[in-house]
Amino acid sequence: MTAPLDPNSSSPKGAQSLSRAVAVLRAVADAPTHGARLADLMARTGLSKPTTHRLAATLVHEGLLAYDPATRLYTLGVFCLSLGRRAGTMPAETATEPDAASVPSLYQRPEYRGDAIALAHLLCDRHLPGKRSHPAMIHESVSGQTSELSFGRLAEYSSRFARVLATIGIRKGDCVAVMLPKGVELIIAALAIWRVGAVYMPLFSTYSASAVNARLESSGVKAIVANRVLVERARKYIKPSTPVFLVEGDHINRIEGRVTQFWSSIYEAEPLAESATYAADDPFIMTYSTKTVEPRYGLLTPVRALAAIEQYMRLGLDVRDEDVFWNMTDQGWEYGIFYGLVGPLLIGSSILFCDGPYDVSQGYRVLSKFRVTNLTAAPSQIKAWWRGDPTTASHQLALRVVTVGGEPLPRDIIAWVTQKLGVPLINQYGHREAGMIIGMKHDPHDPRSLNRVSVGQVAPGFSLVVLDDNGAELGVGTEGILAIHVRRSPLFWFRAYRKDEAATKARFRFGSAYYIIGDTGHMDADGCVHYSGQASHAISMHKD
């Protein structure tokens, strides 16, 4: 991931690094009570921007500082505050470390808690005062035509379609299936579903008819939003009473459902006055494993997962306000949903959609045309680019960083990205039940980083341990079962699979304290994770 996950930067070695870290800490302590910005810390310490950012991120990681991305202010962290309380008011014999579960995460702010969370407000409406005309989505067609959907238009169209959904009886907790390619209709449908408090269930464009119908049946969807191809695959599920919203321009043979034209229904409806709210544990996304035809490992993503999604967008992917961000992955699986759809909307960044079959030459065209600075992709996509030639791009690439969400890449591909493209490569690893939790940064300006053999360090908000076959924690360097320590991981949100007690029990076979990832490995003295392989049929997020 970014600096907090770089083993050579997150743990400063030597007196000089320690002195600089202390200087940053003192600068924050001397700042006004509301906190200090990065520029303030640079001015007070005399350090360069990269050094200040690296040290501040490390102090945040260790709990000495806290950072609020909404205001970009650094303040003293919970560890420093607890030391102050203990030194000033608590007798030595009663001083105890705060329970990790009780320490609020970096991004667990009030908007992600409670029982009245306006999801549509977080993902769209709060951005309107400053970004009404800013593109919420930029769409590039296969033929090279570009269109945009502003936050203002997204708010209007999603409010109108939310009224349509409410009129046909879609209520809080109902599941609505969306089977659409990347485009305007997909983002409008998703936000409209969240405006009525319902659950968004995307379906992979590559699903067979059997897989589509099995998932529709298992989840009990109350309505379908789709194009012709995917409606044809859902014929077995669709009954005369099933509401189907079909995008205009797609002709279908007669089906049993109540077919309504998507855009016509929007233009005929009045905007929904008020959006529904969710509780932190209410689900807003429903997915199944993409690896089986059967609807297995049903994953209900709760609203509180937004805290982990925001952290990954800002720290894991290092998406900045000035970035042109492109998540190339499909919005039918978790990495694309979390970080290609929800994540950009959450932080007010533009979604860049490129439709049609995956094509390397088209990818280079998009990179150069939109001057993409921050790219994230699946391993298979990076491997395909590696076999191509970046010089085919019509203009010089503007890339600042490339992230790969999936299995560790071989060294030759790492060398190609870092040397041929000349940008850092952040190779990450995670699970659909947790998001991306481990990362390693390979930087062309740091030769040592190119030869690292671990998969990286654990992201802030998560704690990883290694267990033996009896569930006992193992020491440094000992190989065993990788697991998330639930109590020490405030950003870990998964608790159970939908209607699958056996699969849930397998994940928590040593009790609720540990979530079993399903892979084996060990951790070294620097806190870096070394992946060995799958210990079981684990459900990981690195499905190509």
What this model shows, in words?
There is one protein chain. This protein is of the alpha/beta class and 544 residues long. It contains 17 helices and 22 strands. The N terminus and C terminus are likely disordered.
Short description:
The protein is an alpha/beta fold. It contains 17 helices and 22 strands.
Structural descriptors:
31% helix; alpha/beta; 544 residues; 22 strands
Alpha carbon gap, first and last residue? 20 Å
How much strand? 15-25%
Low-pLDDT parts are: 1-14, 85-105, 536-544
- Overall shape: it is globular
Radius of gyration: 24 Å
What is the helix fraction of residues, given as a range?
25-40%
Largest sheet: 6 strands, mixed
- Mean of pLDDT: 85
What is the strand tally? 22
Number of helices: 17
Task: List strands and helices in order, with pairings.
Layout: H1 14-29, H2 38-45, H3 49-61, E1 65-68, E2 73-76, H4 78-88, H5 119-123, H6 128-131, E3 135-140, E4 146-150, H7 151-167, E5 175-179, H8 184-195, E6 199-202, H9 209-219, E7 223-226, H10 228-233, E8 243-246, E9 258-261, H11 262-268, E10 283-287, E11 299-302, H12 306-316, E12 325-327, H13 334-347, E13 351-354, H14 360-369, E14 374-377, H15 379-387, E15 401-405, H16 411-420, E16 425-431, E17 435-442, E18 457-458, E19 464-467, E20 480-485, H17 501-507, E21 514-523, E22 529-534
Parallel strand pairs: 3-13, 5-6, 5-7, 7-8, 8-9, 12-14, 14-15, 15-16
Antiparallel strand pairs: 1-2, 3-4, 10-11, 16-17, 17-18, 19-20, 20-21, 21-22
Helix pairs in contact: 1-2, 1-3, 2-3, 7-8, 7-11, 12-13
